[in-house]
Model the fold of this input.
Amino acid sequence: MAEAGVEILCVGTELLLGDILNGNARWIAEQLACLGLPHYRQTVVGDNKDRLVAAVREASQRCRVLVTTGGLGPTPDDLTTEALAAAFETPLEERPELWLEIQRKLSAGGRAVALSNRSQAYFPRGAEILPNPKGSAPGMIWSPRPDFTILTFPGVPSEMQAMWTETAVPWLQANAGTSGVFVSRQLRFSGIGESDLAERVADLLTSTNPTVAPYASLGDVKLRLTACAPTADAAAQMLVPLEAELRRRTGDHCYGVDEDSLASVVIDLLRHRHQTMAVAESCTGGGLAAALTAVPGSSSVFQGGVVAYSNDVKQGLLGVSPDLLVTHGAVSEPVVEAMARGVRERLECDWAIAVSGIAGPGGGSVEKPVGLVHLALAGPHGCETWVQHFGERRGRAAIQRLSVIRGLDRLRLRLLAQV
Amino acid sequence: MAEAGVEILCVGTELLLGDILNGNARWIAEQLACLGLPHYRQTVVGDNKDRLVAAVREASQRCRVLVTTGGLGPTPDDLTTEALAAAFETPLEERPELWLEIQRKLSAGGRAVALSNRSQAYFPRGAEILPNPKGSAPGMIWSPRPDFTILTFPGVPSEMQAMWTETAVPWLQANAGTSGVFVSRQLRFSGIGESDLAERVADLLTSTNPTVAPYASLGDVKLRLTACAPTADAAAQMLVPLEAELRRRTGDHCYGVDEDSLASVVIDLLRHRHQTMAVAESCTGGGLAAALTAVPGSSSVFQGGVVAYSNDVKQGLLGVSPDLLVTHGAVSEPVVEAMARGVRERLECDWAIAVSGIAGPGGGSVEKPVGLVHLALAGPHGCETWVQHFGERRGRAAIQRLSVIRGLDRLRLRLLAQV
Done:
């Protein structure tokens, strides 16, 4: 008898060659943990039918639900559906309505319909289709045996995640035998490291229901709170005092919950105040503006910005005086202040953030090493500047990203302090 | 008989909970590819002895070499060595000299020696020690059967990598029967879908040495070419005629190789021509500038840009006439042309790309639906405009990203056509 549980099978030679990180396995594993589903094994195999068939048959002896990613595309490399059908000796059948839909989707996106796309309309007899709202390749939910179900997803993360949320989660909650309802909530933090945060809440990390678990990636620290109860309401209620205690201990470091980003929180704070903002960027090169405009509806708050990569642009569009640039250099406190004031005035905004630094790998010196970043925040009451030393070992992308985070977080804290 | 090959087994409940990305599997997989060792499967299990024993026994039926990571620490959770010994019914024996060394290392590092650390000095009878130059936990090289060898590594990436390079690589080269050296090269494509590309090169996708395999993610299509030969030079030589044939069939769709990006290729083309560029962005909100400034050294070519999110900014910084905005709306051909011309003139550049569209989710209408994006490319010979319909189902981030790609690709093609 198979052990109750879910396994993940990721299909793709690129994983076996080490070309990409298996982000899909991590994402699905986290989702399974949130759903309270036991998950004991992950497997990766390449685009090889025999080895795929073997891996699927083995998994069917161990688990009740198998989640696969990858191998649903139109090329001869894409073998997942075919291998699953073969593993359970079930014929593939074309779904004519799916083939019509695939052609419609590709044409609507302005792409050519290749005959090979037709293979994506073939599924094992008896399989339910798992619609793909973001791409052409649908997945399936298929029980080749009464006690064993396979869910297939494409390898493209955005498509897999949309399908998971819209179709797989409701199915798993109804069918995968969870032992209660799990409700999770993420608290998001800035300006505090993972180990510092973990120390402040150390006694709570050992709690079993609800649980608290820390997560960290570059510039992003989270706590995930999870409770299990007979109903979702009861589980959510269990999280309320826990969240209050965590917020009490961490103060303004906690900037948001769940899908909030620093940018979305800043946009919200400004929208409630009927205020606007702009940016002037040198070393972040548009990353600060991109973070703000990634937020739907940001246009009511964010007026725009200037990517002032060259000194000519700093002078011409932002009004930074040539004297300042010559005397102090582009990466300096006076210049970043002039950039912030300049863009705030020209775009007639309440607030402006400016960044000028050395993201590397070239351009550093003993006096101004790679990783040195000057920031400025201009607002109704004046302009403040500060400096960050991110260190050169982090690399260009990390220095750019951390600069964006520090700029947004300073504005967030100023808005909170204003009441 | 086990298939000649290497499998990776990663041990750790944190992987099954999705707490961390499996960077160790990717790193080792890449190393195996460089060594030319066939690698057909990766497995992840948690800190559970029974499931570990089962996974090891299964692997021993399939492969000749098993590489494990994780589970070598001193806590009760660390079960790898114990489980491996149990899987092959071999007793564990203390290595007294190792226990002395562990105590010495911990004391030298200023850490307390816990009695639990002693467990790290126990290994199966017959195992060779794999020294750990960076931490206290050694690994082992052990052949419980003549045709099956296990190499164990700690989960800490820096320790694992040091041990791999210093001890495992020489052992694998001498013992694992590498069948040659593998050399890979990626060709990158734009303006062509994965299925269309696969059809053009269909006959080559079945080749066995060298191999050709297609990969696709949003707006990014690649072919990976891999050859195996007795030497790296010979393998690289095998790729030359294959790459030439692929380029012949795909023409300008092939924009670069390996780590190239569309932005880095555009920057290179402009640098060789001693030309400069700027951008004016509405719906991409800084994403186009960010893509360009992600390229190290882009500052010699990319002068800067304007993120003109509001109409005021389009007028004030780019000189778009209020009449145009009122008559045609911000998302229109005349406005995007005025944006491109405006930023090109003001920033005194050779080229300028402008983007204005509706990224959604709000702001769409029947006439101008979400996903409609106007682009303009202004250059020495005038300004061309075009329109893209990405469809509203893709979502905001994808519409922004695809707009960036289409803008950069148009400039690339114009530069190539200029000779």
